[in-house]
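Incident log, support desk, overnight shift.

02:14 A customer reports that sequence design results differ from what the structure should imply. Their input is reproduced verbatim below. On-call engineer (initials T.W.) acknowledged and began investigating.
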């Protein structure tokens, strides 16, 4: 007879902490549990026995794709990668459109889902590391990366561009303060070009003289834009005398490679409350493809703490995952909203190799999922 692994099944269930009182009238129905076969052994885990509890969380990856996770494990080590006897289900959201996340009801539906596959192929993306050069310190930042993704309010964000069309983008930075000050700067970035250009500007207020400094290249053509379009510097292309203005340089080398840089130039700091400027360093990187949406990952740690995961190798054709029901539930330990989902699945979890696996089958289990 196959060994039976049974963890105490109790009717009292807690979400986040076992000392937390249940919502009146819900206690008897709100049982989070897994009951199924793992590697040929019957496993029954239930939250609420002061050893096991349901932990909920959500996260966003570098591409701003959310994952909703429910973790049923020992409360003493839950959240740790090597926690023995821990089962975790994670569901990625549906496609983000125009930088907007779909609602949780769009992401968690009564339907079948695909399992996430292994990272068996890599893809090329463009990495941009932005550094604010704005003043004053502590001003509000809003970055638009120019690819339709969610804007960032970080001071110095790192952003990955994942589409081929994103090899040339036009990001912008807007800085603002509560006092009504606002300033914007934007210029094109070409990740695939081999030429880069930059310049510095100094202003001698005593004689009212501006000096541009840059390193000209052999065979390059430099065009300046002071607000009236790109043209060669000369009597028809003089910088304005405003207290602040935007200066842009377009540089074309002997091979036709074009690069840009723009800066907001301040002539009178007494009349300017805030100024937006930034630098950016770029590189082409190869990363795992994480763009797939609406897929499921199942992880299990055996009694020795060894981790088995559904993502390491391809799933058998008979693998399946289905949400049977979705219900609103009480907030979790971090005061996030949650859903209670009833699921059934048949999945193969892999250890160190494709031949090291555990088949997992459950007809009905109930997990909690947190969302913002």
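02:41 Re-run completed on a clean worker. Output:
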């Amino acid at each position: 007879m196959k060994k039976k692994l049974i963890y105490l099944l109790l009717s009292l269930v807690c979400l986040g902490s076992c000392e937390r009182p249940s919502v009146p009238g819900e206690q008897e129905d709100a049982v989070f549990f897994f009951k199924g076969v793992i590697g040929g052994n019957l496993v029954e885990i239930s939250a609420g026995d002061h050893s096991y509890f349901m932990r909920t969380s959500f996260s966003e990856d570098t591409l701003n794709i959310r994952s909703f996770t429910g973790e049923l494990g020992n409360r003493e080590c839950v959240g740790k990668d090597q926690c023995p006897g821990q089962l975790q289900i994670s569901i990625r959201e549906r496609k983000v459109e125009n930088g907007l996340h779909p609602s949780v009801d769009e992401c968690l539906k009564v339907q079948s889902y695909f399992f996430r596959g292994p990272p068996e192929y890599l893809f090329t993306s463009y990495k941009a590391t932005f550094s604010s050069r704005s003043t004053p310190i502590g001003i509000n930042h809003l970055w638009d990366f120019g690819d339709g993704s969610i804007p960032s309010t970080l001071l110095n964000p790192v952003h990955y561009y994942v589409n081929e069309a994103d090899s040339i983008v036009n990001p912008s930075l807007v800085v603002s303060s509560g006092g009504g000050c606002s300033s914007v700067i934007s210029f094109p970035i070409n990740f695939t070009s081999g030429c880069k250009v930059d310049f510095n500007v100094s202003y001698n207020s005593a004689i009212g003289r501006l000096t541009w400094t840059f390193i000209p290249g052999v065979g390059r053509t430099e065009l300046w834009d002071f607000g009236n379009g790109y043209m060669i510097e000369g009597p028809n292309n003089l910088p304005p005398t405003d207290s602040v203005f935007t200066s842009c340089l377009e540089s074309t080398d002997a091979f036709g490679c074009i690069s840009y840089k723009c800066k907001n130039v301040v002539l009178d700091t007494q009349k300017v409350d805030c100024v937006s400027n930034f630098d950016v360093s770029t590189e082409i990187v190869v990363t795992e493809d994480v763009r797939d949406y609406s897929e499921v990952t199942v992880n299990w740690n055996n009694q020795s703490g060894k981790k088995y995961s559904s993502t390491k190798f391809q799933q058998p054709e008979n693998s399946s995952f289905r949400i049977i029901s979705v219900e609103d539930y009480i907030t979790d330990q971090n005061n996030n909203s949650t859903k209670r989902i009833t699921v059934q699945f048949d999945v193969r979890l892999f250890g160190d190799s494709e031949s090291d696996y555990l088949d997992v089958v459950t007809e009905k289990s109930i997990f909690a999922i947190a969302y913002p």
